[in-house]
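Chapter summary example.
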Amino acid sequence: MAQQMGNQPMIVLSEDSQRTSGEDAQSMNITAGKAVAEAVRTTLGPKGMDKMLVDSTGNVVVTNDGVTILKEMEIEHPAANMIVEVAETQEDEVGDGTTSAVVVSGELLSEAEDLLDQDIHATTLAQGYRQAAEEAKDILEGVAIEVDEDDTEILEQIAATAMTGKGAENAKDLLADLVVRAVSSVADDGEVDTDNIKVEKIVGSAVENSELVEGVLVDKERVHENMPYLVEDADVAVLDDALEVQETEIDAEVNVTDPDQLQDFLDQEEEQLKEMVDGIVESGADVVFAQDGIDDMAQHYLAEEGILATRRVKSDDATKLARATGARVVSNVNDIESDDLGFAGSVSQQEVGGSQQILVEDVENAKSVTLLLRGGTEHVVDEIERAIEDSLGVVSVTLEDGKVLPGGGAPETELALQLRQFADSVGGREQLAVEAFADALEVGPRTLAENAGLDSIDSLVELRSEHDAGNDAAGLDAYTGDVIDMEEEGVVEPLRVKTQAIESATEAAVMILRIDDVIAAGDLKGGEVGNDDDDAGGPPAGGPGGAPGGMGGGMGGGMGGMM
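The structure predicted for these 563 residues follows.
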């Protein structure tokens, strides 16, 4: 790019740079965003199809989960990546609704494209979209249903709804029950940390044999053959220390002049280990979980005392053990006391999924639990795990917020109806953007109908008429094609799934619409083109390949195989 000054051209961008600006830039970014939404759109709903993703080394992932699909696709186009971030935010904040969020984002861009063609400015669109998103959140708050944390039936319905359309659907009633029990166990005053729920996958047997262990499964074995396999009514010690001879901080050299001195030296080491074990015995511990090593001699002494011990336990397992049994993690083995011990009704070594593991169960008020998921093949178990993670997320969010919405496209239809009425009160050209926002939200029920093989126009018309009549819980039954009351049917999802999806989808769409200049530099040395106060957002290195209106070089590898 050169600017003529007198007879001398002034070089502003290097020859390697490619620049796309104005309508071409907007068109290219919108196309990329829509392509991402299109890639996951067919997975939406109970009758959504799955995607098989194969990488260069032949690894295969078969999934229905929006965020997993987009992560595995390795999308390179910078604008398309902004839409991928919508799915990642949704996953982090709520756990479910990733596909919905991405599809809404793509539809907002699609609606905006029509308005841009009518010479409505992108900033006006952005303003209208933001107003519509704020109003949408208020509307959803108004139609939300209050849920009590003791209402197990609704919580199970929420868990089951999050699993529909995924590999876990066949056993969703059993799995929903397990999920609700797991979340209820680890809930602390309405706050839920799902890190306290360990999900263990076991290949073999049927999904129906999955179970919840109120306690912890530790992927370790006893350190000594003479230790017991089972300890009942166990007092459990959790150590963040090694049962080994203390080494000096400095490099020390010991000169031995006769064999007796060497023997004394070894006896002293042995005595030191014996004292450590004696301290553990005096505390009353029957089971020891050490995060560091256990010396061979210490193992022998522990086995003699009939104590079951494991070593090199992972720190997050140690934390879960402490929460489950009520033990305190001891950082110095010499300071251990009976107050530091936790309690478990049973600690045993068992074969689980082909390997020996330590099972700690029968604990009072388990604040840490383990879900054992089973399935016929590795791909099946992996997909069940993804469904369970979504389910755990939505149940946790519901317990925290206490509000749910009917599913089946009901909230979107109600939003579209009320936003069109709201648009009349919005002055100026923003009114058109609010109406476009309302139209975009109807992509939810429309896609549900399409994926179920129904006529999307007939379904939408019927949905709208039900909502016009005041039935704000009317949604689409994907199996029969009827419009029914979703609340009565038990198809519900957390309020936060919808509000978060609308929020992040709007922000991503607005950000993409405001870009009117894409500069792909030859080499940004790992940096980024700056985005000052104007609307020129620069893509990261390896940008869009400068192909106006197309996918460009960037999208090529990532999207090419999928689309």
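To summarize the output: The CA atoms of residues 200 and 372 lie 5 Å apart.
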